[in-house]
Amino acid sequence: MINGLILDIDGVISGDRKGYNWPNPHPEVIKAIKNIHTKGIPVCLCTGRGSFGIRHLVKLLELDNPHVGDGGAVVIDVLANKIIDAHYIDRSISKAIVSKLLENHLYLELYTTDGYMIEQGTACGITQKHAAVLRHEPTQVSSLLKEASTQELIKIMPIANGPEEKELVIRLFEPYKNQLTIQWGTHPSADPYEFGIITKKGVSKRTAAQKLAQSMNLDLNDVLGVGDTITDWDFIQLCGYAGAMKNATDDLKRNVLTKKHSVIGGSVDNNGLLDIFRHFKLID
């Protein structure tokens, strides 16, 4: 029996069809999630977004349970305004890698648990797109290097415009792989940009899902996990029930289908999450 849900947001709950499933999920998806939650089943969001960037959605869906933000760096009960778990990057490491990224003229955002920063003069098209995703405007500061030296950072996010910039970020990250972890995320409305999610070593959606389950006394064997990229496999592989969207990456779909209780739903733009809910008899 399914006693809990862990859901990625972008590409699963929300798409890029403005007025249909963006910036808010489709009304039928909202209704289904609310109905499941009112049955006493916790619905936990698990995303690479800044934890502050899911507040609007959590309030909209009325989900009074913990959630995962920043690629696993933060576990937070948004409605109770309570941080359950947080992993901060060592300031000396933050300063070193931020310096390298800035030297190579990469667009960069720095994250705390309360908000995010960009350097003055770097705002561009992706700034507007990302602010729309997060429902939050960045603070513009005179020096990101100075902020990296003084702030408690949860996440460092270089945003790559195409494969060449992504490869550059990967090369620059290499000397710090023993102190930091990097994951990659996308958003349907921000193609072709890819979001580098740099966090403290060991941070992942997997470890965050374990902390999430522990905080709610929830057995992950009784949880349904749903995602759309291979980074979501970090938490889905722990779950007894697994789902992937039609628009998911092929590697995630292959992995999901190795689970005993699994299904591939329709596309996010066809409200495919509802197919998954119906398959597991969570809704009629």
From TrEMBL:
Any single Gene Ontology cellular-component annotation: cytosol
Protein name as catalogued: Cof-type HAD-IIB family hydrolase
Biological source species: Candidatus Roizmanbacteria bacterium CG_4_9_14_0_2_um_filter_39_13
TM annotation in the entry: none
One of the record's GO molecular function terms: phosphatase activity
Organism placement in taxonomy: Bacteria, Candidatus Roizmaniibacteriota
Domain of life, source organism: Bacteria
